[in-house]
Design a protein that fits this description.
The complex is a heterodimer of chains A (about 160) and B (about 375). Chain A is of the alpha+beta class. Chain A has six helices and six strands; from the N terminus they run ββββαααββααα. In chain A, the strands form two sheets. Chain A has a four-stranded antiparallel sheet with strand order 2-3-4-6. The longest helix of chain A has 17 residues. A five-stranded mixed sheet of chain B has the order 1-2-5-4-3. Chain B has a two-stranded antiparallel sheet with strand order 6-7. Chain B starts with 11 loop residues before the first helix and ends with a helix.
Amino acid sequence: MVKKYTINKPHIVFDIIENEVIVINLKNGNYYNLDKLGAWFWESIEKQISPDFLTDKIASRFNIPEEEVRTDMGIFLSTLLSEKLISEVTEEQYVNSENGSMPTDFEIPGHITGYECPVLRKYSDMQNALMLDPIHEFDERGWPEMNDDLYFREHEDELAN
Amino acid sequence: MIVKYTNPFPSPEQEQLLKAALFNENEAVKAWQQWNQVVNFEGYFDHASFRLLPLVYKNLSHLQPEVMFAGKLKNVYLQSWYKNQNLFYFCSQVTAYLSENQVYPLILKGIPLSILAYKDRGARPMSDIDMMIQLHEAERTLRLLREQGWIPENEEYIEYNLQYGKSICLKNDQDIELDIHWYPFFEAHGKAGVNDFTDRKYAFKVNDVQLYSLSPSDMLIHVITHGLHYNPEPPIRWIPDCLMLFRNLGDQIDWEYFYHQMIKFGITLKVKLALGYLKETFHLQIPENAEKILLKAHVSYRERIIYKNSKLIEEEKELRFFRKLFQLYLIYLQQSGEKGILKQMIGYIKFLRFRTHYENPLKVLFYHIFVKRKQENKY
């Protein structure tokens, strides 16, 4: 049987910014981001497409053994479940069932050029990221990934005390 | 103490940044480049400009990173997005709780503007939640909110604010700020009817919770009235607020109703100044009929004198006592809506007693004229 999932709304809120999915769990303040296949995978859940349907597409597009894709997706899915970002739903709860088939217009986006196992990046200590200056205290890895060198230089006096 | 008030219109640099945030591609890029020629993005600049950066990012994010420091602008946007989500969340939680207790707030400012006008949850950074409830429900609402851990910031001002103010600020243990208003702006004080604003409330959803805001017409009045106050920090954000409101809700503005509200609350001068500026600088298109009626509207003496005094205050380095007293009188006029000279005088003395924490206003006057002046002359 095909397993189906749903995003745990309303306390899980997300947006898509420049092909990157940003997610916040409003109950605990944790922040997450996903890109490339991870972002596409998230979109599939939002569109209520079973992730099982994605495996074929990924395997054939990137010429990867289906089993490898299935294992990677399984790990990624359990991470989303353990972080309580999504939940498994029953057939009756499934609003937009596609009669067991993959919708034809849900293609892997063109900007994804190679296969990489999807990763969920998690940020649970957001206090500093919220207090710091987003122009000067973060580097090319982007907010909320702090640039420790810049941070220590800026806050040398406070830290020394 | 009266803080220094400054002009609500943008400086030339701020205007360039506003254009980068609001114009179409080529003009926006040009404005962004011009802004970067005079302001050091990597340096430190004014807070009002900083608060426009998420919208600049949204407007220009499809450009190449080297053209616009996209990474750094994206950082500003993401931080704003995250902070806003918390405010959306608490707003929906508080509204749900109040509604369970038969208090039905209208959500003001940032939250409805983000969802309905900007149609984006990060482009307009917010620092607090603003809600309006009816004045007669204020005390019960404060009690309900206290039960949920929201504590008024200045307990001693509650009585003053209920009589002359328009809102009170509360905070919870996570330092989230919630402003409860009984009037959306000072000019509505004493002039708004019980069902003004609520009769035309506008439904929207945040995190699956049904919320209500002012109608698009009232929202426009609110943005202009609030924005064109002389403030310690020029609140130039009224400009994108108005333009985004026109862009996405413009067809729902009831101009006839807008006109009546404008006259009723005595904000004709502000409306004329704001819409005139937006038309001239940002090519705002107002329906022809509406524009004709608005242009003909009469600006009252009270409005003119309040505005003129605000401008004089901006130019004066240090406020003299009688200027302060006069400014307080104008604030009182704005906040009380009292008519008739005798009523106004008595009301003003009562108002001064509140402002001076129940000290005898004559004592305050004596202190400023004789004691303080003597001290000043000494040095």
